Amino acid sequence: METWDAIRARRNVRVYTGQPIEGPALDRILEAGRRSPSSQNTQPWDFVVVTDRAQLQDLSKVWQGARHVANSAATVALVAPMRSEESQRGWVRYDLGQATMSMMLAAVDQGIGSAHAAVGDQDRVRQLLGFPEGRFCASLIAFGYPADRPLRPIRNPNRRPFDEVVHRGRW
Amino acid sequence: METWDAIRARRNVRVYTGQPIEGPALDRILEAGRRSPSSQNTQPWDFVVVTDRAQLQDLSKVWQGARHVANSAATVALVAPMRSEESQRGWVRYDLGQATMSMMLAAVDQGIGSAHAAVGDQDRVRQLLGFPEGRFCASLIAFGYPADRPLRPIRNPNRRPFDEVVHRGRW
């Protein structure tokens, strides 16, 4: 898909067909995340990819807004190091956001929808995913083929108007 | 450009030809940012776009790593609200990272390179851009046509190996 179409076609998809994501398609999504830029090229991320149905169902309970994870074809958990300085914590989050967007667009490109979820219960998610102490799970990204309609460029996205968001030269 | 090519072609570009970015191309970059997803669709961003050479030169001095801003064709300053809770501050950064990636890929799609910079001197950047109290400038994204070589998919990016970053099922 053309890049500009993929950017305009991305939307939150929380209801999925039962179709699994084949290995190469899933790996391409993960590769997009791996290639993302990060502050000082620190790459402060690990991706735990879950496709087992029972594990996805358990994972969907770590936050009230994660229910769609249960029926996703695959969910990627973004795991990152805890940092002592808030400035560093901010860059970790920024970089995770960049990796998220790369993965979501690599998904759209393949007709695959996605939706984020936050994580409430860190102890439980650590137990489910087995990541080491000193790290946390910042977010979950659920992927799957949309059950409603295919991903196509959205004409009028639900966003603040362009002229409100964009300032020329000065605010 | 195909999405998968754009994702693989993105790299930091800090040396630019003198060619300006035409209005429609720049607006497409900004539109990509505006369309980005955000926590609860809060859209915690304003984009101040700078193309004036003298202003770019001033802006390039707000951090030691922002020197490339001086010669960019355009630089977008990401301005965001200050939040009292750290959890909210984290999501603001995450969302700014998503908007950043969208803009950078919309740039690649048009043959335009980019490179981030952090901001050291908040007072100075506020003075230069005129944004209100209660907000801060999280980062600058410089854009311009690459002076070295065109943007093409990178075969072996300087990143941690795929099998180190990706964990299947459990860490």
What's the layout of helices and strands?
2 copies of one chain form a homodimer.
Chain A: H1 3-9, H2 23-34, E1 46-50, H3 53-59, E2 74-81, H4 86-108, E3 113-117, H5 122-129, E4 135-144, H6 162-165, E5 166-168
Antiparallel strand pairs in A: 1-2, 2-4, 3-4
Helix pairs in contact in A: 2-4
Report on the architecture of this protein:
In chain A, 36% of the residues lie in helices and 18% in strands. Chain A contains 6 helices and 5 strands, in the order ααβαβαβαβαβ. The model of chain A has no long low-confidence stretch (mean pLDDT 97). In chain A, strands 1-2-4-3 form a 4-stranded antiparallel beta sheet, sandwiched between helices. Chain A has a single domain (3-149), classed as NADH Oxidase (3-Layer(aba) Sandwich), CATH 3.40.109. Chain A has 171 residues and is α+β, with helices and mostly antiparallel strands. Chain A has helices spanning 3-9, 23-34, 53-59, 86-108, 122-129, 162-165; strands spanning 46-50, 74-81, 113-117, 135-144, 166-168. Strand 1 (46-50) of chain A pairs parallel with strand 5 (166-168) of chain B, so a sheet runs across the interface.
Shape verdict of chain A = globular
Low-pLDDT regions of chain A: none
- CATH topology (level 3) name of chain A: NADH Oxidase
**CATH homologous group name of chain A:** NADH Oxidase
Which CATH top level class of chain A fits? Alpha Beta
Strand order of the largest sheet of chain A: 1-2-4-3
| Tally of helical segments of chain A | 6
Question: Biggest β-sheet of chain A, characterized?
Answer: 4 strands, antiparallel
Do you know the CATH architecture of chain A? Answer: 3-Layer(aba) Sandwich
Largest interface: chains, residues each = A-B, 73 and 73 residues
What oligomeric state best describes the polypeptide chains here? homodimer
CA-CA gap between termini of chain A: 35 Å
DSSP strand tally of chain A: 5
Strand percentage of chain A: 15-25%
Helix/strand structural class of chain A: alpha+beta
